[in-house]
Design brief:
Beta-Lactamase, diguanylate cyclase activity, Alpha-Beta Plaits, about 40% helix
Length: about 325
Amino acid sequence: MPPRTLLVDADPAALTSLAHPGGDWWAALEAAGDGAWAWDLDSGLMACSRCWLQDCGFAGEDRGAAGLLWRERIHPDDREAVAAEIAAFCAGERDTFRSEHRLAAAGGYRPVLMRGAVLRRSAAGLPAVLAGTFTDLSGYRRLEETVRQLSASDPLTGLRTRRAFLEAAEGERRRVRRHGGALSLILADLDGFRRFNDAFGPQTGDAALCRVARCLEATLRKTDTVGRLGGGEFAVLLPATEGARAGMVAESLRQAIADSSVPGPGGGSVRITASFGVACLAAQEDGVAELLRRTGAALCDAKRLGRNRVCRPAP
């Protein structure tokens, strides 16, 4: 069973005597950026290397103290899970110990990864001394958040990416199924965008995409969701909006784009138009795919009928 009180001592000498007399294993771990720890299950003493305590923001006076209570520094919401991991490991159910949890440090809680193995066993073969590492995961978490934001945001226009938009659409669909209400989808595709790029160059094409994105954002409500699906195709999700009202919104968007322009490569300005398809979530639809299909069919009708217009599915 894990001890009731866990003491932390920052003195490396404590690690030497507790874990591996005469050994320098913790120094190598510190050089790699991890903190070393050793834990005597009988006495409850847990010794931590000085550099890890410093990296995690403990005050100078704390680093020299022998009374830091590790368990009390674990986030209250994580303590039960950590205790379960420790109990399973000490009972021999696992060969190694591994726990991700939040630990109190200067400025708040830090995510850490604690890993360990049995360093010494008792005469009965039970774990007596454990040793392992602490890894500060703060940098990894920041990197994960940066990657998440990049994957959710189109780097050119700043709108949601296709994946992020479809995730939002599925969330809105589930909300409508639970609570009722309407949900409409608008698909917009820039007319002749490939020829536009060929004629005016990719830089002007990028400017046109950004201009369209700003037109959409300026016209829509804060509760609406807009994304760029790829190329010159955009999508708009309108919560609590029936098909007829969605058609009016699409017409406003179409007009805003038609009235806008971007600087041309040789001076002057160039205009671009877009075709729109609109559909409302039907009662029998269980997913976003069918709503996308019907909206896409309406968009194809708008292209076929001459472009720069709004179409809805036939009743």
